[in-house]
Request: fold
Amino acid sequence: MTAITRVGLVAKRRLEACSGVLAELAGWLEARDIEPVFEHETAALAGLPPGRPTTTKDDLPKQSDLVVVLGGDGTLIGMGSRILQSGADVPILGVNFGSLGFLTEITLAELYSSLEAVLAGTARIDERMMLRAQTNRKGRLCEDHLTLNDVVITKGAMSRIIDLAVAIGEMPVMHVRADGLIVASPTGSTAYNLAAGGPILQPDVDALILTSIAPHMLTNRPIVIPGNSEVRVRPMMDDGNDEVFVTFDGQSGHRMESGDLITIQRAERPLRLVRSASRSYYDVLRQKLKWGER
Reply:
């Protein structure tokens, strides 16, 4: 990993609890001749003096050698997609200020020891698969999204069950009659996929998961497919009463139209995530989900 001279700092919006931490962290970095690069709203939280340079979330990855996120998993996910969208190849370190924190697993007490490990080149850094989801409408690309956890195709609030034709590449696989379908990465296996009855995958497993939401077929079960698969989903919309939506990591989305085709596949590059040195993935499962306990 290249030498770290600039560290991007971004916090969850209006997270007043981290204001003192941000100021202290900036001082810690500057004492080591490392420039803290503040995102606009994060600078306000830290009480940065007016006139000091700040940047946007979108531009932060290109101005940093490492990005530190203070908040919860949602804040990290949003920043992760921006890192890949920017073309930058910088690791991200998430500090948990939320309640669950599968991704922001580093505690506040571990912040500085984790940073020391990154600076020394001894930190554990996972490469997490990202997904690229593209919506094609009338023969042209109309939406292109990068996601870390999942792509979810679901019915509207007042809709009936929806019918989705699912293929892997050019090979038809199944028709799903359900409230929706989740296409999840291994990282996303512990998110919506888990709540819908899907399997947990260790993050370094090279696979995708297809999990129906409240399926109306007793034989429908989640399926794990190779990570290099291209999943193609087309909603079968017979009339104007159907409402079908697609969402990306639960942070953005759009309504689908009759004839739309969404393709989901592994993104060109993974997200590099700094891991805690004090616990394994299974420790996180036991801590967060009480997994494996009697």
The chain has a mean pLDDT of 90. The domain at 6-128+270-289 is CATH 3.40.50.10330 (Rossmann fold). The radius of gyration is 20 Å.
